[in-house]
Amino acid sequence: MSFKNIQISVDHGVYWLMLHRPDSRNALNTEMLSEIEAAINEAESIPEVRVIIIHSVSEKAFAAGADIKQLSKKTSLDALSPGMQALYDKIESSKKATIAAVDGYALGGGCELAMACDIRIATEQATFGLPELNLGIIPGAGGTQRLARIIGKGRALDMILTGKKISGIEAMDIGLVTYLVATNKDLLEKANTVASRLLNRGPIAIQLAKMAVHKGYDVDQSTALWMEKLSQAVAFETEDKQEGTSAFMEKRTPTFQNN
Ligand code: CO8
């Protein structure tokens, strides 16, 4: 597949999705969002791919949000259409593990894209924020919900209502990012290290664990625990469970199946 606003490569089970619209700080226009969706669909369909890393070619921006030039022309009906929110839901629900490797600006829809990923790694000089209220709108691609779930309601309200930007260091302090690194080069190294850890896990177990955490978070605990139990029951029926437990007893590294 060839794209205009993103670059794709597959390397040892890792699908690299590189955002690349440098003249606009990777502002996410409709075309770029369609390309991201096509890439995610492609990654989902390749059994060998176990991890998707979303990153940017340029150090200046991960993504500066929705394309404001397009946004200015959108109507209420456009806002009601599935759009970015549905795409980010698809990313969160991906059966592959997802990593956002963030340098530069991750604002608005860019920050929301990072929050839809399972793991966020950022450089110290990365800049996160949800500045939508500056434009007279609100975060609309999951920001009001995911930010509160990740960092808590109080801090989320502060970031959303004031529109303040925070550095990678602050983002690490409040738990918005999982790993902090100094430079862009370190970012790639860390992304590769985290990816290799994920590659050693059973892909079905990854999928089930993701589902239990993401879906379980949205319901009451007793329902969530039941979801966990059902997911575990599915895991117990897999060849990967046999392989994982046998490998432990035989003191060797397990070889899990692709799915
Ligand atoms: N949209 C369109 N163009 C952009 C965007 C953007 N979000 N961000 C930057 N650009 C463009 C600039 O217009 C400029 O273009 P040009 O050279 O043609 O004038 C170019 O990128 C470079 O930008 P700057 O000169 O401003 O670069 P700086 O490094 O000085 O600043 C910033 C970078 C801080 C990122 C600054 O450009 C900025 O504040 N951008 C806007 C950030 C923002 O407000 N993002 C939120 C957008 S709204 C959103 O994401 C809503 C998502 C949910 C939508 C749901 C719809 C239903």
From TrEMBL:
The record's keywords, sorted A to Z, are: Lyase
An annotated Gene Ontology molecular function: hydro-lyase activity
Q: Can you cite a GO biological process for this protein? A: fatty acid beta-oxidation
Cited InterPro entries: ClpP/crotonase-like_dom_sf (IPR029045), Enoyl-CoA_hyd/isom_CS (IPR018376), Enoyl-CoA_hydra/iso (IPR001753), Enoyl-CoA_hydra_C (IPR014748)
User: Which PROSITE patterns does this entry report, sorted A to Z?
Assistant: ENOYL_COA_HYDRATASE (PS00166)
Q: Does the keyword Nucleus apply?
A: no
CDD domains of this UniProt entry? crotonase-like (cd06558)
Protein family (similarity comment)? Belongs to the enoyl-CoA hydratase/isomerase family.
Q: What's this protein's name?
A: Putative enoyl-CoA hydratase echA8
- Provide the species name: Virgibacillus massiliensis
